[in-house]
């Protein structure tokens, strides 16, 4: 049997089958016998990758059903059509199919014959294709292109690279926040407690020198007592900014109540907390995570929502904790969730995912934003 000789550009097995399958429709050398092995035709027809062959004038001479499905048309409509009806012709492309595809958006694989190009469906939709082209050295030669729609793969790759970028930004921001917090604490300790302690020391020296009258000493001591009280209040404030005491002393429920009361007092927005104290007895990791998530949600509502009321629901269901935070403000927009410089929602998601939970942020009907979180509690109950 005199089969077309295969070119050096890869996919030899596929082209071999193509040669077998389409020996009749493709030009043959004189004396070559028609060869149409039904089994090999079936292989090409049932291949899940799209396969088309074109002649040097870029006219499609063969297409399998997967190719027709890929381009949203029929095999009949493809055969005899120019290649450029289905694969976008790059501006810098030469005349032949090899030049045509190699001038595309770039090499897609390791082999010189792998290409990334743009496909065009019959309905006009464009989509990314990766494929491989090989040349069978018939006279005239024909070219076989094996293709795959890589829309989904590209989408996943883009999502992955976006998420890498966000993680990089988050880690950089965490470093900055750490430094800022240290500076802030150092300043508060120095300005607040440092000043008071220095003044106490001076008063003590005066007392030791016993210079004044007993009435002067009493006056000095009452001033020292006042300074000590101020120092205690400052210390409590600094410590509770670092870590809410309610979280350690009363547990999550009371810490959330404190957060809610603080929010209502500072912003004058009514906020209800619907939860059961016994259901919120969780270990430190879960309590801290939920506290920080709710804290960020409330901060966002105060900063961005323009809301007139807020509801927070936390209850257990089948071993999960369901958390819902709703406001009736302007509502978050899809593009808000993609802001590169915003880290609050990313931090929220990271905390939820670290606990193997799920989070969804959506627009609430008729207005406002809704955050739904499901947190598995196994291993976090106390
Ligand atoms: N409850 C809300 N209602 C309306 N818009 C919101 C709400 N929560 C968040 N947004 C929008 O989503 C964006 C992203 O929020 P995110 O918490 O990630 O960042 P941020 O609050 O802007 O900054 P930060 O990094 O300091 O938290 C906000 O800038 C805001 O536009
Ligand atoms: Mg925020």
How would you describe this protein?
- This protein is an alpha+beta fold and about 375 residues long.
- The chain folds into three domains: about 140 residues, Beta-Lactamase, CATH 3.30.450.20; about 90 residues; about 140 residues, Heat Shock Protein 90, CATH 3.30.565.10.
- It contains eleven helices and eleven strands.
- A six-stranded antiparallel sheet has the order 2-1-6-5-4-3. Strands 7-8-9-11-10 form a five-stranded mixed sheet, with helices on one face.
- Strand 7, helix 10 and strand 8 form a beta-alpha-beta unit.
- It is elongated, with a radius of gyration of 36 Å.
- Bound molecules: adenosine-5'-triphosphate and magnesium ion (MG).
- The site of adenosine-5'-triphosphate has 17 residues, from helix 10 and helix 11.
How are the SSEs ordered, and which strands pair?
Blueprint: H1 12-21, H2 38-46, E1 50-54, E2 60-63, H3 65-70, H4 75-78, H5 97-102, E3 106-107, E4 114-120, E5 126-136, E6 142-149, H6 151-209, H7 214-242, H8 245-249, H9 252-267, E7 271-275, H10 284-305, E8 310-317, E9 320-327, H11 344-354, E10 358-363, E11 369-376
Bound molecules: adenosine-5'-triphosphate and magnesium ion.
Residues 300-301, 303-305, 327, 329-332, 336, 339, 342-345, 369 line the site of adenosine-5'-triphosphate (ATP).
């Amino acid at each position: 049997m005199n089969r077309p000789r295969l070119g050096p550009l890869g996919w030899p097995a596929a082209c071999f089958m193509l040669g077998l399958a389409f020996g009749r429709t493709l030009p043959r050398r004189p004396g070559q016998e028609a060869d149409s092995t039904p089994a090999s035709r079936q292989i090409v027809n049932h291949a899940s990758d799209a396969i088309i062959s074109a002649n040097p004038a870029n006219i499609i001479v063969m297409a399998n059903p997967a190719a027709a499905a890929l381009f949203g048309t029929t095999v009949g409509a493809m055969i005899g059509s120019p290649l450029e009806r289905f694969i976008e012709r790059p501006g810098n492309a030469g005349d032949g199919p090899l030049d045509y595809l190699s001038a595309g958006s770039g090499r897609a694989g390791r082999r010189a014959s792998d290409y990334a190009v743009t496909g065009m469906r019959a309905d006009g939709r464009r989509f990314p294709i990766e494929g491989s082209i090989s040349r069978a050295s018939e006279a005239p030669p024909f070219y076989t292109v094996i293709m795959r729609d890589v829309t989904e793969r590209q989408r996943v790759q883009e999502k992955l690279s976006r998420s890498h970028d966000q993680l990089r930004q988050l880690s950089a921001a965490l470093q900055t926040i750490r430094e800022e917090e240290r500076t802030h604490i150092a300043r508060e300790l120095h300005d607040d407690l440092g000043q008071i302690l220095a003044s106490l020391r001076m008063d003590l020296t005066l007392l030791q020198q016993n210079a004044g009258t007993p009435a002067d000493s009493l006056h000095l001591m009452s001033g020292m007592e006042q300074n000590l009280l101020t120092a205690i209040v400052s210390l409590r404030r600094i410590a509770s900014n670092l870590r809410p005491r309610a979280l350690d002393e009363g547990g999550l429920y009371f810490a959330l109540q404190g957060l809610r009361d603080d929010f209502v007092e500072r912003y004058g927005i009514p906020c209800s907390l619907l939860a059961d104290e016994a259901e919120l007895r969780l270990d430190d990791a879960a309590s801290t995570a939920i506290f920080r998530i709710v804290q960020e949600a409330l901060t966002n509502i105060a900063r961005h929502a323009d809301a007139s009321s807020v509801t927070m629901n936390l209850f257990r269901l089948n071993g999960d904790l369901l958390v819902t935070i709703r406001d009736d403000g302007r509502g978050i927009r899809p593009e808000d969730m993609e802001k590169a410089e915003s880290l609050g929602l990313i931090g929220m998601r990271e905390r939820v995912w670290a606990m193997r939970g799920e989070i969804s942020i959506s627009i609430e009907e008729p207005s406002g934003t809704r955050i739904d979180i499901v947190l598995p509690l196994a291993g976090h109950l106390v």
